[in-house]
Design a protein that fits this description.
By secondary structure, this protein is of the alpha/beta class. It has one domain: 3-Layer(aba) Sandwich (Rossmann fold). The protein contains six helices and seven strands. Strands 3-2-1-4-5-6-7 form a seven-stranded parallel β-sheet, with helices on both faces. Strand 5, helix 5 and strand 6 form a beta-alpha-beta unit.
């Protein structure tokens, strides 16, 4: 049975990833932070762990419990939006630290911790955003979130080169504007459609195009 790790699986896109992989017969390890989310994920059939993806010690301890070469896919989905302000509105230091630790440090630490736990041909999917694309930036809103996702893109792209000799593939994904707590009710995509598309993109990413940045329909996004 193939095995997948999904971080930030307590709600929204992460929960939908867990649901779809369970329905497809995968062995799913799902991380979250709340007891209520643990119960919901276990009801789906997931193995669960409460992990704060901004905490280095928690990440390392969690990863140490995963057997070597046992993961076929790792979906790095945990993230936070922070204050939705522009650069000219002062960012609170604590908000900066929270967003950057969750959106950048967490995935960076976890990729390192999972390197020996990915099966040959395994895939790491970093859930980013079109808002992290410098080429697509057309306004100044949510500057901190944009910066964190641009940094995540750089981390994942760099990791694709380091992991290549191990036969591990990396793909950077933008889910689109999805109807979740973060995306809001006006978003144009439902979570099921977005996640189904991203699962296909994960499966279709080959060693030759490891490190690519695509959306849920597998259209390339400029960096």
């Amino acid at each position: 049975m193939p095995r997948v790790l999904v971080t930030g699986a307590g709600r929204g896109i992460g929960l939908e990833f867990a649901r779809q992989y369970c329905a497809a017969g995968w062995d799913v390890i799902a991380t979250c932070r709340s007891a209520d989310a643990v119960a919901a994920l276990r009801a789906l059939g997931c193995e669960t762990a409460r992990v704060d993806m901004a905490d280095a010690a928690a990440i390392d301890a969690f990863a140490a419990g995963i057997p070597a070469r046992s993961l076929d896919v790792a979906v790095l989905n945990a993230g936070t939006a922070g204050q939705r302000m522009g650069v000219l509105e002062p960012t609170a230091p604590e908000d900066f630290d929270s967003v950057m630790r969750t959106n950048v440090f967490g995935p960076m630490r976890l990729i390192a911790a999972l390197a020996d736990r990915m099966a040959k041909g395994g895939r790491i999917a970093a859930i980013s955003s079109r808002m992290g694309s410098l080429g697509c930036t057309a306004n100044g809103r949510s500057a901190l979130y944009r910066a964190s996702k641009a940094a995540l893109n750089a981390v994942a792209r760099a990791a694709s080169f380091e992991l290549s000799p191990r036969g591990v593939i990396v793909v950077v994904l933008s889910p689109g504007w999805v109807r979740t707590d973060m995306g809001g009710e006006q978003a144009d995509l439902d979570a099921a459609t977005s996640v189904a598309g991203m699962r296909a993109a994960i499966e279709h990413t080959s060693e030759a195009d490891s490190g690519r940045f695509v959306d849920h329909a597998e259209a390339a996004i400029v960096w």
